[in-house]
Amino acid sequence: MSKETEKNNPKDLATGEIVEDVLGLDMRGLKSIYALWVKPREYFQAAKQANWNNIYTPSVRLWLFFFALFSVLKFWWLENNPAMIGAYIVGFEEARLTEPEGVSFEEIAQEMLQLTFAILPFLQIAVLGLLSFVYPFWGRPLSRALRQRYFFAIMIPSASLMPVLLTGMVFITSEYIELYSYSLALTAFLLHFMVSYRGVFYDFTLGKRLFLSGLMAFVVVALSTLLGVVTQIGGIVYISMQYGLSP
Questions:
Q1: Is 167 exposed, middle or buried (0-12, 13-18, 19+ CB in 10 A)?
Q2: Which of 1-5, 42-46, 56-60, 188-192 has the lowest mean pLDDT?
Q3: pLDDT of residue 19
Q4: In terms of CB atoms within 10 Å, which of 5, 64, 97, 153 comes out highest?
Q5: Which of 135, 132, 131, 195 is nearest to 159 (CA)?
Q6: What is the pLDDT of residues 233-242, one digit of tens each?
Q7: Under DSSP, is residue 40 helix (H, G, I), strand (E, B) or coil?
Q8: Is residue 135 within 8 Å of 147, Cβ to Cβ?
Q9: Up-side HSE of residue 41: CA atoms within 13 Å toward CB?
Q10: CA angle, 158 as apex, 155 and 164 as ends, to 5°?
């Protein structure tokens, strides 16, 4: 077989290319996610190197992958989410709003849900991206680039699990939606805390390690929750103006 033939032989493609073709994530990316779950200290050590030791995928790229996955899955969630739609309808009724002529509360709730899911991810990218540069509580001096790498890396385990947990919303009823939302926030907090404790702050004293890890987890979850609330309020105001909703 000639060298030219060998060069063009499809067998030369690595198996990892299949994963990248299907998921948009190569074997290095999967190894990075595994490391952040199982041995986060190694990942954060590699983050100090310009090329991530040629082992791991940059954390921002991983987070954007899950953002893209979220964007794809949201169309299914929106079409199959009676619990959230039901919660909106209950809210409309409790507020004693008058249903507009020619459109039902269910249709309005569906539109509000679509609006929220469309705006929230981009708002998160903007705000969390900015925070990653300015968040000061690392316990040591860090460059802006390293702050960003650390910050997004802390969110990867939660981001990798949320597509599964958010899909669970499709299968629950509206009376449990609030409880389920609280459980999602608690899960995210614990995962952020775990990665921070075992990865970023592993070499600090126990007290400082607990405090900085807890603070990091709280800030990320609280900010994400706040962004969700702001988006919801914005959606309510917009929909109310569009349809003239009033008691």
A1: middle
A2: 1-5
A3: 46
A4: 153
A5: 195
A6: 888 778 777 7
A7: helix
A8: yes
A9: 6
A10: 145
Given a contact cutoff of 8 angstroms between Cβ atoms, the answer to whether 13 and 26 are in contact is: no
HSE-up of 124 (CA within 13 Å, CB side)?
25
- Tell me the one-letter amino acid at 232: Q
Asked if 89 contacts 105 with a C-beta cutoff of 8 angstroms, the reply is: yes
pLDDT surpassing 80 at residue 90: no
What amino acid is encoded at 76 in this protein? W
Q: Convert the pLDDT of each residue in 206-220 to its tens digit.
A: 999 999 999 999 999
Are the CB atoms for 239 and 111 separated by under 8 Å?
Answer: yes
Report pLDDT digits (tens) over 163-217.
Answer: 888 777 777 777 787 888 899 999 999 999 999 999 999 999 999 999 999 999 9
Alpha-carbon dihedral sign for residues 135, 166, 62, 32: positive
Q: Where are the domains of the chain?
A: 58-243
- For 114, 177, 181, 209, 247, the CA distances from 84, given in Å and listed in that order, are 11, 7, 10, 38, 22
AA letter at 100:
P
- Spatial contact of 153 and 192, defined as CB atoms under 8 Å apart: no
